[in-house]
UniProtKB/TrEMBL annotation:
Function: Negative regulator of class I heat shock genes (grpE-dnaK-dnaJ and groELS operons). Prevents heat-shock induction of these operons.
Gene: hrcA
Family: Belongs to the HrcA family.
Organism this protein belongs to: Candidatus Yanofskybacteria bacterium RIFCSPLOWO2_01_FULL_43_22
Protein's recorded name: Heat-inducible transcription repressor HrcA
GO molecular function: DNA binding
Alphabetical keyword list: Repressor, Stress response, Transcription, Transcription regulation
One annotated GO biological process: negative regulation of DNA-templated transcription
Length: 248
């Protein structure tokens, strides 16, 4: 177990690293964080978090970055909380798009994929369950992230994008089969898809017209903006349930 102060510190490190993929130092935290303690005290706490597997140090840098374990703790805290704030403008965009679209599953899936890809700046795939009808978008958005400018990462993520129809059977079996929740998140090695094990994946399920089920897969860097993307996913599920008066 980590202390409340360590958890607060970890959340701030994660928040800073999501905004800027540079190792976070204790000196930077003293300047920007709400801590009334010295840099040495924070450095000690960061050492403890590193020993516990929540932070790691790259090369000889004085700063640290979050591990998969840290992101998992952060995401679990978000998902167990009272709800994630979503700006009204974002809610209105999703509401308008879903409610103005025809009650056609393919059109709805395409519309929400485009909206979520733009808002999340991540890669998005949608599918109608028990069909081979896919829609995919947002590959170019990922190349705005510095981590996707490495040749190996570019190759892996592009391969996943090109082969997604084939991979989706595996995703359905291995991701959707793990639990039946509306929203599931797989971070790093938790993700069974070989080509995207350095990424984070959010899987969303929602009702569609004609008693069909839709699914959306959001793929982004491990340092994706989980709070924003989870908010988008929750908003999406709620809008679909309200529109079709269904409960999963």
């Amino acid at each position: 177990m980590i202390t409340d102060r360590q958890k607060k510190l970890l959340n701030i490190v994660i928040g800073q690293y999501i905004k800027n993929p540079e190792p976070v130092s204790s000196k930077a935290l003293v300047k920007s964080g709400p801590f009334s303690v010295s840099s040495a005290t924070l450095r000690h706490e960061m050492n403890e978090l590193e020993r516990a597997g929540y932070l790691m140090q790259l090369h000889t840098s004085s700063g640290r970055i979050p591990t998969t374990k840290a992101y998992r703790l952060y995401v679990d805290s978000l998902m167990s909380g009272p709800g994630i704030y979503v700006p009204e403008a974002t809610k209105n965009k999703i509401h308008k798009a879903i409610n103005e679209a025809k009650d056609d599953p393919e059109e709805l899936n395409k519309i929400v994929a485009n909206i979520v890809s733009v808002l999340s700046e991540n890669m998005v795939f949608t599918k109608i369950d028990e069909t081979d009808r896919f829609y995919k978008t947002g590959l170019s958005s990922l190349f705005e992230f510095p981590e996707f400018r490495e040749s190996d990462r570019v190759f892996n993520i592009a391969s996943a994008f090109d082969q997604f129809e084939r991979l989706f059977t595996q995703i359905e079996d291995e991701l959707f089969g793990i639990n039946s929740a509306d929203i599931s998140i797989f971070i790093g090695d938790e993700n069974p898809i070989k080509n995207i094990k350095e990424e984070a994946v959010i899987v969303v399920r929602y009702p569609l017209p004609g008693n069909k089920m839709g699914s959306m897969t959001i793929v982004g860097p491990m340092r994706m903006n989980y709070e924003k993307n989870l908010g988008l996913a929750q908003c999406l599920v709620e809008e679909f349930k309200n529109k079709f008066n269904l409960k999963l």
